[in-house]
Amino acid sequence: GEDVEQSLFLSVREGDSSVINCTYTDSSSTYLYWYKQEPGAGLQLLTYIFSNMDMKQDQRLTVLLNKKDKHLSLRIADTQTGDSAIYFCAESGAGRRALTFGSGTRLQVQP
Amino acid sequence: DTGVSQDPRHKITKRGQNVTFRCDPISEHNRLYWYRQTLGQGPEFLTYFQNEAQLEKSRLLSDRFSAERPKGSFSTLEIQRTEQGDSAMYLCASRGVSTDTQYFGPGTRLTVL
After folding, report:
1. Mind listing the pLDDT tens digit for each residue in A27-60?
2. In this complex, do A45 and B104 lie within 8 Å of one another by their Cβ atoms?
């Protein structure tokens, strides 16, 4: 079945760039998403990319997609303490309505 | 506020009791999803509605779970005879016809004692 993997933890200093990585197994994935979750809260959609794209930029966020390697990354420029949260990678594939999520990467931003 | 809303935000119950959660999707979103999230994990899909029709259920949705969306607007998720393993965050999401993204509510955190 579909599987999405993420590293568990990333720590950066305020002002640095953060790069969160994700790999997935389903070659029919059509959309890939990044969601942010703060403690006790629901999921906030950050950005998404269609599978025929290899890059998308949205203000401080840059998404890179390597479809051949099934690798997705989220780069956050000028990381702030307010960016501390758990970041989830998710994918949806042809014929599947539900999203498949990774286990999340906890980003800790040190002042 | 035009986002997805869920009620209650927190529920503590004793094992064996029934609980019901409500989700109000974004207005005019015809697709509604329920997910369950346990500690340290990503959300896992439970069920999906398009309008009032329940079109997909995951294997996670045991016969103690039932979901409805009677008028194609709000949805309810009921868990009968709760077990400690049902303790989790229950998330609702909605999606419109012309969008490729699901928007999530704040979740209902269930604790079964």
Report:
1. 888 899 999 999 888 899 999 999 889 999 999 9
2. yes
